[in-house]
Amino acid sequence: MNIKAEVLSKLASLINGIPASSAHVIARSVNGRLEINRVRTLRANVLGVKYEIRVTDRAVKIDVHDPLNREEDYSRLLLYLLNALERALQGKSATPKKLVGLMQLAGGQTARLYDKKAIDFLTMEMDGSTPEEVRRAVEDIGGVLVEHLNATWSFEVTPLNGVRIRVAFWQGEEDMPSGASVLVGEEVEEVGVPIEELITIVEMTINRFVLFYRKETGRQPKLFHSLYF
After folding, report:
1. pLDDT of amino acid 27
2. Do 134 and 114 contact (CB within 8 A), yes or no?
3. Which of 19, 126, 194, 214 would you call most buried, defined as having the most Cβ atoms within 10 angstroms of its Cβ?
4. What pLDDT score does 228 carry?
């Protein structure tokens, strides 16, 4: 993975700037933990991508493990991890609020087409899935199964800064097609995640979940190889 020098420099500055007294809270913003010794080591898990970032006086070394081997994902998520650390160091933290659709957020009208694309992808590719089948894929992206109204299954994941993303799926019947919904916690506005960044994270959550589902079950694509094709 090629990482720009300015990104490495900013990561080093942020990680070195984390006070020992708040290391746990800051690291939690990226689902990780920070070890402060002669070498500062941040281990984080974002949507199933595991990062190990080691910072010394002279260098920054980053090891990445992605079971899906999607460089476009772990390169982009590294930038969002950096943004999340920056927000956490500014004292921005999430207090769980109600779940809403993307279009209910400030600037969310730009998400209309993205939201429809994600729903179409979910309802097509997850048709016939059961809670037992999706459990492993949910765990793979760092999420948990939750109850949501009368949905066949639903899960929640908090990729960065404690902002929740909830995905719910309803299995169709003979005279009714399958359906899905994607909600986010209103705390996203409190933390200050830009709507463009949030849309991308939501898309990656859905796409990686479906790809992990196929990996765990051996299921083949029904129509779409991924959310982006």
Report:
1. 93
2. no
3. 126
4. 85
Give the residue from 18, 11, 48 showing the smallest Cα distance to 33. 18
What CA–CA distances, in Å, run from 101 to 86, 144, 203?
Answer: 26, 20, 14
- Contact between 47 and 73 under an 8 Å Cβ cutoff? The reply is yes
Q: Which residues pair with 208 in a beta bridge?
A: none
Q: Structural domain boundaries of the chain?
A: 5-89, 99-217
Residues written for the chain: 229
Q: 121 pairs with which residues across the strands?
A: none
Contact indicator for 42, 49 with CB cutoff of 8 Å:
no
Q: Are strands 49-55 and 153-157 parallel, antiparallel or unpaired?
A: unpaired
- Count other Cβ atoms within 10 Å, centred on residue 104: 14
Residues 217-221 have a mean pLDDT of 96
CA 12 from centroid of its chain's CA atoms: 23
Give dist(CA 180, CA 67) in Å, integer. Answer: 26
Q: Would you state the pLDDT for residue 30?
A: 96
Q: What is the pLDDT of residue 108?
A: 84
Per-residue pLDDT reduced to its tens digit, 88-142: 999 998 999 999 999 999 888 888 888 899 999 999 999 999 999 999 999 999 9
